[in-house]
Write a structure and sequence with these properties.
By secondary structure, the protein is α+β, with helices and mostly antiparallel strands. The protein has 13 helices and eight strands. It has a six-stranded antiparallel beta sheet with strand order 2-1-6-5-4-3. It has a two-stranded antiparallel ribbon with strand order 7-8. GO terms for molecular function: magnesium ion transmembrane transporter activity.
């Protein structure tokens, strides 16, 4: 029974076909099937279609315009999940597990991840391009190294079966669980890495702009500097909210093992299969010329069964937990940097308020001093007003009395000013 008959049997049983690596023809496998910036022409334009990039586990990628119905049929997700990827929830962060897919909405990355491919929404946006580049560079190398990588010579053929002159893994997905993270977690790791890097760079830019502005405000309190600090605080608040949303979503997953177990799409895909029947079918398709090959196949059968039983514990979420904890700590460090900048802003504001209070106190002291001087001058003016009355007085006819009287009156007012000023300082109403 040939390979085509085996694929027909799998379709009759309702099982999805196994992913097969691309044929090695000497050409790079991670190249896009069409020029960048072009959209694959569809036979019929559908209303509400949006631009998606399909990126499979072997590095092949293409741009398509798909509507909601096409995405729902391809990824097997409910309609409400597409609303999460829409513009209304563009500023939210969520990682949702479904039966056959993972819906990821992290900052600017909005994607649907399955066990075999990634559907990325709006891949030509400026913020999303780094994520696309990382998928092209990292993911194909990881997958191909896992499939084509060789170990020691004595272990190279163990656990494998011959097919058209090639030794293929048995089963390939189970061995992948041993070597590396499943496909969906590799994509999730790249998404978290891009998002965390973007947030870190945003915080670095914020720190680079914040400290000179705050130092300038501490030296010179002006309307321009206050406006710059106000804009800085607004940017800091928005950035802190974005970091907090991603951090809270990861923390929510870490607190619930069942949610993390639902994210193991490859594990669920393999659990839905029948490993023993699958392996028996593969053995029946392969000619067995000699007894050593029989021993190899029996070893492969036992090895496959042990791997499935050992690795398919539903609540074994250690790999995902370690992955999420690493990026949770990175986001926690980013959040602490933002909080440090906010504390520096608060300290600068306190310092500016102290400066303003000090200036306000100096103005109050100056006002009190001027009030005391005004009181002393008012006394002199009062005496001068008394003598300005048209009342007969013998002092009016005394020669040479005017200037000595004015001098004595002025000295008396100055003495009154000094006495009141000394009293105010004694009561600590004025600074020393």
């Amino acid at each position: 029974m040939g390979k085509n008959q085996f694929s027909i049997r799998r379709r009759k049983k309702g099982m999805p076909p196994l992913p097969t690596p691309p044929v090695d023809n000497g050409e790079p496998q991670n190249s896009i099937s069409m020029p960048a910036g072009t959209v694959k022409a569809s036979k019929k334009k559908v209303g509400g279609a949006r631009l998606w990039m399909r990126f499979d586990r072997w590095g092949q990628s293409e741009l398509n315009e798909w509507d909601k119905n096409a995405i729902i049929k391809r990824a097997g997700i409910p309609t409400r999940d597409l609303r999460i990827l829409g513009p209304i929830f563009s500023h939210s962060s969520s990682i949702l597990a479904r039966e056959k897919a993972m819906v990821v909405n992290l900052e600017f990355i909005r994607a649907i991840i399955t066990a075999e491919e990634v559907l990325l929404l709006d891949p030509l946006r400026q913020e999303v391009l780094p994520f696309v580049d990382q998928l092209r560079q990292q993911l194909p190398h990881k997958i191909l190294s896992k499939v084509n990588g060789t170990s020691a010579e004595q272990d190279d053929n163990e656990g494998r079966f011959p097919n058209a002159g090639h030794w293929l893994p048995v089963p390939e997905a189970v061995e992948g669980l041993q070597a590396e993270l499943p496909f969906e977690f590799q994509v999730l790791e790249i998404a978290l890495e891009v998002v965390c890097t973007f947030l870190d760079s945003s915080v670095a830019d914020l720190e680079r702009d914040a400290y000179p502005v705050l130092d300038e405000l501490a030296m010179n309190v002006s309307t321009k500097n206050l406006e710059q600090v106000r804009s800085l605080k607004s940017n800091l608040t928005r950035l802190l909210a974005r970091v907090q949303k991603v951090r809270d979503e990861i923390e929510h997953l870490l607190d619930d093992n069942e949610d993390m177990a639902q994210l193991y799409l490859t594990r669920k895909w393999i659990q839905n299969q029948q490993p023993e029947t699958l392996l028996g079918t593969i053995v029946s398709n392969c000619p067995v010329p000699a007894a050593p090959n029989l021993r190899r196949l029996n070893s492969a059968r036992s090895r496959s069964g042990s791997l499935v039983s050992n690795h398919f514990n539903y609540y074994d979420v250690e790999d995902l937990e370690m992955l999420l904890e690493a990026y949770f700590m990175q986001l926690e460090g980013t959040r602490n940097k933002i909080l440090s900048v906010r504390e520096y802003i608060d300290d600068t504001e306190d310092y500016v308020n102290i400066q303003l209070d000090n200036q306000r106190n100096e103005l109050i002291q100056l006002q009190l001093t001027l009030t005391i001087a005004s009181f002393a001058i008012a006394v002199e003016t009062l005496i001068a007003g008394w003598f300005g009355m048209n009342i007969p007085c013998t002092l009016y006819h005394t020669e040479g009395l005017f200037w000595p009287f004015v001098l004595c009156l002025t000295i008396g007012c100055i003495m009154l000013f000094l006495v009141i000023l000394g009293y105010a300082r004694w009561k600590k109403l004025l600074g020393s």
